[in-house]
Every structure is written in structure tokens, then in C-alpha cells.
Amino acid sequence: MVPLDPVPHPIDHVLRGVSGDAALIDRAGAWTFAEMEEAVGASARWLSGQGLGPGERVATWLPKTRRSCIMPLAAARAGLIHVPINPLLRRAQVAHILADSGAQLLVTQGSRAGTLEPTDVPTACRVVDEAEMPLRGEGLPPSEAMPDALAAILYTSGSTGLPKGVMLSHANLWLGAISVAHYLQLVPHDRVLAVLPLSFDYGQNQLLSAWAAGAAVAPLDYLTPRDVVKAVERVGATTLAGVPPLWVQLLEAEWPAETAARLKRLTNSGGALTPRLVRGLRERFPAADVYAMYGLTEAFRSTYLDPALIDAHPDAMGRAIPFAEVMVVRADGERADAGEPGELVHAGPLVAQGYWHDPERTARRFRPAPAFAEHGGTAVWSGDTVVEGEDGLLRFVGRDDEMIKSAGNRISPAEVEAAILSGGEAAEAVALGVADERLGQAVVAVVAGDGSAEEALRTRLRRELPNFMQPTRFEWRPSLPRNPNGKLDRAAIRREVTS
């Protein structure tokens, strides 16, 4: 088991496996830790020769290629800040992230670059094909970055506006990797099947926690649940991280008994597991421990539930992960009593550095820790209401904002609404998340208009929004209700849709 050493290191030092052991497995074969180290060094040297100064941003818009897997380490070694872009995003979202981050370099593929308009790429940003980045040859040595130096900006959606960049330091990434590797009890012979997007903190941690434990990662971009089943067998996967909609699909797939038995560890975040899902996973994967987890990009990960407790407490979020201090805080700033709802507040060294170039939103979410906290300084006030039981286990109650969480993705209602209104097919729009067994929440759009332009609206949105942001249905109304202040009455609309 990985020891809980609280001393952070530069994140590019995370390749701690035996040099001859496998570190990454894909259809091209296996990369050893020694080969990975060479690739990181060679890529870092190439990046350092691209005319970027220390602290400049380098963005990647890639599927799970070898270069996308090592870029979090190579960029850090070159003294740059990595900005991974979800490969599912379309040109409008990519353009926003490039402009907001001030990226000086975008590493992508020709097919993706060809979908961008000239105005989507800032004048100061160069676009290069990933094939230009070497994976062998003379490289830079491991970096000597300070723990609080910025290493990555991960873009995450909020309930209002466009995605915002969360600033993560070397210490955030390093201690997050050590924490997860420790409580998951990862060991060198483990093989982690990485199916989640590497632009998410949860997805990126699949790589970093495995390598910190000396284990191997098998990155997979899948199209169907059957692809995941075949990959588990092909690479001998022992560990699989997922979100609730993926588990629903995997439980519907056909699993040879010997393949299902290979999995020793299932980890869930991005939405709560239902008791039904827990029962299904326990029956289908009898040799696997099921880890229920809760987290947010601004504080990486907050809690996990010991697998020994999940059968008796399938509704629980568990307790704080190593290096995290998690508190339930009343509205008056005091600690909530057992059984009393309060806001979940996260303190300690896993707390991010705020939102990139957004002091106003940073001030709202990143505020001084409560007076009773063990860790002083800045804490993340999550906006989530939780309750701590007499058993010490935390349970989720609800969110204070209107964030939609669908298929493990955080979706801004305001972003969906802006896209709907941009073409003139509807006069007003409200996007909502409604309960859906497969997706967790489905996006429903309530719009003002006669509905005659719905086909044209859907066609346009398919071009402008990624698949996971597409409304599953539109509800057309002559007009939308308003509150006494003249604003759209979102609460009334939600009641109408969900009643």
C-alpha cells in the first residue's frame, strides 16, 4: 500500500514504478516505466523549445492517446501549465477555453483542428499536431517545481455562465494521487482501465494514482459497453472507475463470469449510487470492492465509503479521504450537530487555488475556513447540503444551485439556454435536469414558442453542443411564468416539469 507521506513533490515525479514494469497498456503494446520516463522527458524538452515562457498555458484536445496521457507530466516538467480539453466538446466550447486560459499552444489532431474556424483560435495560440511531439530522445530531467506552483487548469461547468478554469498546483495533484492510491490500496500488479475523460479531475487521477502506486494504466475510448467488457479481458484489468450511467450500461452488458471476476475494485463518483445499482454491482462483480466517492473539482475529492460498509449503507458518502478535512457547517458558521443538515465545507491541502482570472467567482466559492477547522486558510464552500449521522457517515441532501449532472458530466443550464436562444427558434428557454435512471439526470428544455422550429433547433444544437449537453426533450409553451420581480420563475417551471 502507498504510504501516506504528506510531503508533496512535483507532479512529474509521480512515475514511481519499477523501470521494467508496465506503466501504460494500449493496442500498440505496453510502455514500461522507463519508457514512460523517457517519453515525458523528450516531450518536455520539445515543449520547452516552442517559445513558451514559464507558466504559459499549453492546451490539449485529444482522445486518450499516449501523448495525451503523458502531457500532464510533460507540461509540468517544462514549467508550463496544462489545460486539457474534453475531446467531446465542440468548437464553441473549445474556443472559449482557449481564449479564457490564454493558451499559447494547442496540441491536437488534424481532424479536430479542421473543425475550428480561424476566429476560434486566439491570435497568440499556435495549433500543432500531436505527431510533432517526440516520445523518444534526449529529455529534460525531473523538475524542481515548488509545491504551490500552478500545474494545471481544469475547466468545469457551473450553474451559471460558461465553464470556469479551476487552478490546481503540483501539491494538489500529488497529494490527490497519493491519497487515492492509499485508500484504494493500489499495488504494482494492478491494472487500471481508464475509461473516464482525462480532462476531468477524476479521470486524470486514474493515471496519477496508478503510477504513484507503480501500477499500470490502460486508457480506453469506448463506444459501447461491450468495448469495456472486451478491454477488461484484453488487459487483465483489476480496477475500473466509472459514473452511475456507465454502471447502468455495464450491468446490461453480457459479462463472461471469468472476465467479471478479474475486477477487484470498482470506484464511483460523479453522482450517487442507488441501492439498486449497488446490489447489481455486487452480484455481477462478486470479487470486486465497490468504493462510493464524492468530490468536486475545486477540492478534488472529499469523501469515500469503506467498501465493507456499502451493503449496509448504500446511501452514504462515507468519511473524509486522507489529506482532506470535511466539515458540515450551519448557516451561522458553526459546526452542525449529528443529524443536522449543513453545507459541506472542504479544507486542507487538496483545496484548489481558485478560478483562473475570475476573482469574483473565486471569492464566492473559496472563502476562509470556519473558525473551528483544523486547517486554517482558504476552504471550498461547496454549496452542497449534507448531514452527518451518529455513525459518522456523511449523506448527501441536495445542491443549492441548479447544476445539471448527466452521465457524469457537469452541465451549466445557462450555457444550454444560451445555445438554444442564439438561433432565434425560441423566445425564451429554461434548461433543467430531471431524474433519469440511465443518465442520473436528463436535460429538458422548456421553451417559449409554437414548436414549429423544433427540428431546425435540434439540428443546429447538434452542431453547436456536445452530445451530453443535448436536451432529451423540448417542452414548448406560449410563454414562460415569471416571479414578482419579472424574472423567469424557475422554481415554478421545475415544479411543472417534475410533478
Percentage of residues in strands? 25-35%
Q: Low-confidence segments, ≥5 residues, pLDDT <50?
A: none
Q: Kindly report how far apart the N and C termini lie.
A: 49 Å
Structural domain count: 2
What is the structural class? alpha/beta
As a whole number of angstroms, the C-alpha radius of gyration is: 22 Å
Overall pLDDT confidence: 94
Q: Could you estimate the helical fraction of the residues in percent?
A: 25-40%
Query: What is the number of E strands?
Result: 25
CATH architecture of the largest domain: 3-Layer(aba) Sandwich
CATH class of the largest domain: Alpha Beta
Shape: globular
Given the structure, what is the number of helices? 14
Question: Which fold does the CATH topology of the largest domain refer to?
Answer: Rossmann fold
Largest sheet: 12 strands, mixed
CATH superfamily of the largest domain: ANL, N-terminal domain
Structure commentary:
The chain is α/β, with parallel strands linked by helices and 499 residues long. The protein folds into two domains: 11-388, 3-Layer(aba) Sandwich (Rossmann fold); 404-498, GMP Synthetase, Chain A, domain 3 (2-Layer Sandwich). The chain has 14 helices and 25 strands. The strands form six sheets. Strands 9, 10, 11, 12, 13, 14, 15, 16, 17, 18, 19 and 20 form a twelve-stranded mixed sheet that branches. Helix 1 (33-48) crosses helix 2. The longest helix has 16 residues, at 33-48. The termini are far apart.
